[in-house]
Amino acid sequence: MDELTLYIANKNYSSWSFRPWIAMTAAGVPFREVLIPFDNPAGNPKFKDISPTGRVPVLHHGNVRVWESLAIIEYVAELFPEKRIWPEPAAERAVARSISMEMLSGFRALRNACPMNIRRPKGRLDLAEDVKAGVDADVARILAMWKELLERSGGPFLFGEFCGADAMFAPVINRFAAYELVMDAAVLDYMAAVRGHPAWKSWETAALAEPWIVPEDEV
Ligand SMILES: N[C@@H](CCC(=O)N[C@@H](CS)C(=O)NCC(=O)O)C(=O)O
User: What is the pTM of this model?
Assistant: First the structure.
């Protein structure tokens, strides 16, 4: 099989890069990583050379190009069915995919107000009323979803074992921790389990060693 190459941006800030990277690393999928750091707040013109959207992550596999974080996870799950990136049975997989799509297309208030920032010291934000209302609504929906799933699976991850859905929410776990957005004990246990995963630790160690600062994401 041709080598898989995953192009990503800064580990400290690139939340979309983090998702397929942690899914593939946690599952033990062999791949080569190429990191192209942001050279402006929105990206890097070099992304256009490697990705049809000019965005990362993008996966190269021979002549195949896969962009969009969730599409990358799906592609790799099909290439390596034995790695069980999605849960069994089909009904659980459907829920895992539903919440992953919800992540991909939603929670904009949270994403905009609270950028992923692995090295950020913990601390709450003083948000304007309307922004806070949007963030609170996003947090409430995610908490309700996670609590229901954790109760059903018994943890430590959303569907028991670490899966693609945990990967899709990994950057949210950083946001919840860094901006002190949650208090719920079961959710804090879940966050600790993800943050204790060797794949998370490996990403975090590399993020903390990065020299680059993106001022727009330092809120
Ligand atoms: N929906 C895409 C989002 C990708 C995305 O926005 N990536 C950011 C980096 S985290 C990017 O490349 N930004 C550059 C730009 O927008 O020019 C995905 O899931 O992969």
Answer: 0.98
